[in-house]
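Quick one, C-alpha cells below:
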C-alpha cells in the first residue's frame, strides 16, 4: 500500500499542496493511506477525494481572518518583507478573559466545515483506505491518531481543527474530557504511523529545508522569542520523527521518499499571505517534478548496479 504523509508547517502547507498536485495529477500516483499533522491535516481530506483544484483555491486565498477569530499578531510590511509584532490589545483582552492562549482560531473551525462538506466526508470515508490526522493530548502527554473511519463528520472536523491549533498562539480545545492541541508537538512528520498502518511505500512531504539554517535572528521581545523557542523545539521533534520513520521503513522493508522544501520559506508560518502562498504552491509543483525525476533516476542507477 502507498501512503502520502504531510508534515505540519502552517502557511507552508501551500508548498505541500503543490508537491501533492504534481504527484497525483501528473504522475497519477494513487494513495491508499493519507496521514497529516497540522496543516497536513487540512490538506489530506481533500487530497483523499481528489479535490486538488478545490484545496488549491482554498490555500491560495487564505488570510489571517480565515484562521483567527482573535489574532495575536500584527503584520507590518516594509517593502517586500513582512514583520510580525504582538497585538497587545488582543493579548491583554485574553488575559482579562482568563484565557490561556494569546489568540483564538475559531474561524478556522468554521472554515473547515464550510470547505469540507458532509458529503465529501462520507465519500472519503467510503473510498479511502484511511485518512488520519495527528493530535496532541496535553492531559495525558500522548500523541493520538484519529482515523476518518472511527468518527462522525462533526467529530472528525474537530480533530482536523485540533491538529492545527499551535498553542499558545491558537485555541486549546477540550474534547471528551481531555485538552488537546497541535499534533506537531508530538509527531510533526508521522511517517512511522503510516508504516504501522500498513504502508509499503511512503511519499513524505516535509515542510522544512533538509539542512536547517543556523544563526537565526532571535526575537526582540518575549512574544517573538517564545515563537523562536517553539520553532527550535519543533525542529527537534521533526528530526526525531524523520529518524524514527527511516528506521521503521527499514525494519518493514518499506520505500520512503522524502520531499523537503528547497529553501526556508518563512520565519513565521502563522502568517498567511495570499501572494506568498500562491508562489509556494507553484514552487512545490516544480520541486515535486524535479525531486520525482531525481528519485526515478536513482532507482534506475540502483537497478543497473544490481543488474
Amino acid at each position: 500500500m502507498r501512503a502520502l504523509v504531510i508534515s505540519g508547517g502552517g502557511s507552508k502547507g501551500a508548498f505541500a499542496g503543490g508537491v501533492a498536485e504534481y504527484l497525483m495529477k501528473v504522475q497519477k500516483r494513487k494513495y491508499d493511506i493519507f496521514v497529516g499533522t497540522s496543516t497536513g491535516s487540512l490538506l489530506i481530506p481533500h487530497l483523499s477525494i481528489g479535490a486538488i483544484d478545490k484545496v488549491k483555491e482554498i490555500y491560495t486565498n487564505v488570510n489571517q481572518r480565515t484562521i483567527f477569530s482573535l489574532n495575536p499578531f500584527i503584520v507590518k510590511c516594509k517593502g517586500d518583507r513582512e514583520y510580525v509584532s504582538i497585538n497587545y490589545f488582543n493579548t491583554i483582552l485574553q488575559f482579562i478573559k482568563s484565557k490561556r492562549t494569546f489568540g483564538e482560531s475559531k474561524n478556522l473551525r468554521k472554515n473547515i466545515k464550510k470547505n469540507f462538506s458532509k458529503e465529501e466526508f462520507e465519500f472519503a470515508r467510503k473510498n479511502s483506505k484511511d485518512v488520519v490526522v495527528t493530535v496532541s493530548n496535553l492531559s495525558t502527554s500522548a500523541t493520538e491518531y484519529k482515523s476518518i473511519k472511527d468518527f462522525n463528520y462533526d467529530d472528525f472536523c474537530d480533530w482536523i481543527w485540533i491538529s492545527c491549533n499551535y498553542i499558545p498562539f491558537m485555541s486549546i480545545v477540550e474534547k471528551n474530557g481531555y485538552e488537546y492541541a497541535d499534533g506537531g508537538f508530538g509527531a510533526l512528520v508521522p511517517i512511522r504511523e503510516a508504516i504501522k498502518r500498513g504502508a509499503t511505500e511512503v511519499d513524505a512531504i516535509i515542510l522544512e529545508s533538509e539542512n536547517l539554517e543556523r544563526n537565526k535572528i532571535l526575537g526582540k521581545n518575549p512574544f517573538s522569542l517564545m515563537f523562536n523557542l517553539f520553532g527550535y523545539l519543533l525542529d527537534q521533534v521533526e528530526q526525531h520523527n524523520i529518524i524514527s520513520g527511516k528506521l521503521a521503513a527499514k525494519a518493514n522493508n518499506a520505500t520512503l521518499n522524502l520531499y523537503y522544501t528547497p529553501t526556508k520559506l518563512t520565519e513565521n508560518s502563522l502568517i498567511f499571505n495570499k501572494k506568498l502562498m500562491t508562489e509556494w504552491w507553484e514552487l512545490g509543483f516544480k520541486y515535486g517534478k524535479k525531486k520525482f525525476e531525481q528519485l526515478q533516476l536513482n532507482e534506475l542507477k540502483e537497478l543497473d548496479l544490481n543488474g
